[in-house]
Amino acid sequence: MYLHDIESLCLPSYASTLTYKKVLYVSVLDALSASVFPREKSNRERFIKLISKFCDWPESENISFPHLQRLVQLLPEPRYAKLHEYVKSKRFDPCSHITEDPNFKDIDMQCKLSNIGIDEKLFERVSIRDLMHSSLFWQLRNGLIHEFRKRGHGLEDAESSDPMVYPNGVVMPHYHSVDERGDFELVYPLGFFKRISESALKNVESHFKKIAHNPYDSFKFGPYYLQDLN
Q1: How many whole angstroms separate alpha carbon 27 and alpha carbon 21?
Q2: Which residues contact 182 (CB under 8 A, 6 or more apart)?
Q3: Helix or strand or coil: residue 55?
Q4: How far is 58 from 174, CA to CA, in rounded Å?
């Protein structure tokens, strides 16, 4: 796999593949996050703050319902009984977009999660906050940047014989049925990467103009690869 990918980088048409393009888009988002949150040391926090504040993505804090279903399956303890009831009571539409995913307030109102914090690690290192789309998109970013692969097995519109129909033509993340068992994969299509990258660039530029800040001042420039030496 990787040998083919490396060799294809030399071809004029290499940018036509989905993975290459997504890597470039998340690299843009990384750079923008570093420019607008230069004192935030955590790459994750910078990235998620950019997504939440500058990308015009109101569903970024929704919780992926299939991910919530899977987490609840791994929690047999009695203290999670109300979460089990909540998941069983919801009917998941296989053709749904993430606009139909719940947020933490929705779940808390129905389950009264006074004994469960949104950042509490419920299974291994997974909290409810980790199921938010902003966090899941960060995980996808990591797969692209560090492993040169997407997460999951969901098909892009370009790969599917049954492309998703988007409300008002706005490309957004959605779910894709991958087998006869009824399992659903979360898909962040290439057009969505493009849309939030354009929004981020526009909104970050507007922010810097408003506060009269030069984004280059957020970075160090010089001849040394170790930034502290420049």
Answers
A1: 10
A2: 94
A3: coil
A4: 14
Which of 27, 178, 48 is CA-nearest to residue 19?
27
Residues 52, 196: Cα–Cα separation, whole Å: 11
pLDDT in tens, 13-68: 554 588 888 999 999 999 999 999 999 999 999 999 999 999 999 999 999 999 99
Cα separation, 118 vs 128, whole angstroms: 5
What is the enclosing helix (H) or strand (E) of 127? none
Cα gap 207→201, rounded to integer Å: 10
- Phi, psi for 51 (deg, rounded to 5): -60, -45
pLDDT in tens, 157-201: 655 545 565 666 678 888 877 665 556 788 898 889 999 999 999
Taking the CB of residue 181, how many other CB atoms lie within 10 A of it?
Answer: 7
CA pair distance 33, 81, nearest whole angstrom: 39
Tokens of 34: 């570093």
The model scores a pTM over 0.85:
yes
